[in-house]
Amino acid sequence: DGGITQSPKYLFRKEGQNVTLSCEQNLNHDAMYWYRQDPGQGLRLIYYSQIVNDFQKGDIAEGYSVSREKKESFPLTVTSAQKNPTAFYLCASSAHQGLAGVNEQFFGPGTRLTVL
Amino acid sequence: AQKVTQAQTEISVVEKEDVTLDCVYETRDTTYYLFWYKQPPSGELVFLIRRNSFDEQNEISGRYSWNFQKSTSSFNFTITASQVVDSAVYFCALMNNNAGNMLTFGGGTRLMVKP
Asked: Residue B108 and residue A42: Cβ atoms within 8 Å?
């Protein structure tokens, strides 16, 4: 089945530790995105990548890092510099924007990160 | 700058009632796209609909309908004869044509449908 997988579903981290969240897609989408969702709030964009080996900062990139070495993978590292990392993290992907206009984003199931 | 506002943070209805979720947006662009997503308790966002700024026709899909009005910058979502399975958080989102498929989300509306 085509789709987006995120692992792990739940993640616990001690303060001061870096942690990496996995995101894999087999939809052959060029673009991938990471969002953060806090309780009762909407989604905020952390990083996005339109193509392999290229990525851009979103609205709240501080304390996070990403890589895009393969088309199907876009891992997110939450570093110790992130002051308040406890949140729900969602990964998404979309086909490349073409002449027909934009394409909707498809989302993974999310990873809930808790800092102890 | 663009912005999406969902003024209703929580709505509670009894099964079979109709319910409308409001969405108001702000953008300076003439070409843009509006979306609705559903987030059930499992957490994954499910795509519901996409409309472009040149198409103001209302759309109906089963019990779901959408009312797009450029004059009031609104893109409201109505569920007819609500069911318990409709309970979720619903997000309205905006994308500009040159934004590289990037979405600006509203804060979401939590819908609770009681049996």
From this structure: yes
Nearest to A101 among B33, B47, B108 (CB): B33
- The position carrying tokens 């792990």 is A8
Distance (Å) of CA A13 to CA A5, B6, B24: 21, 33, 38
Please give, one letter per residue, the 3-state secondary structure of B2-15: CEEECCCCEEEEEC
Are residues A40 and B100, on separate chains, in Cβ contact within 8 Å?
Answer: no
Alpha carbon of A30: minimum distance to chain B alpha carbons (Å)? 11
Mean pLDDT of B34-46: 94
Nearest-CA distance A39 → chain B (Å):
10
Residue A43's alpha-carbon distances to A72, A99, B5, B37, in angstroms, are 22, 27, 13, 11
Contact A114, A15 (CB under 8 A): no
Q: How confident is the model over A9-32, as a mean pLDDT?
A: 93
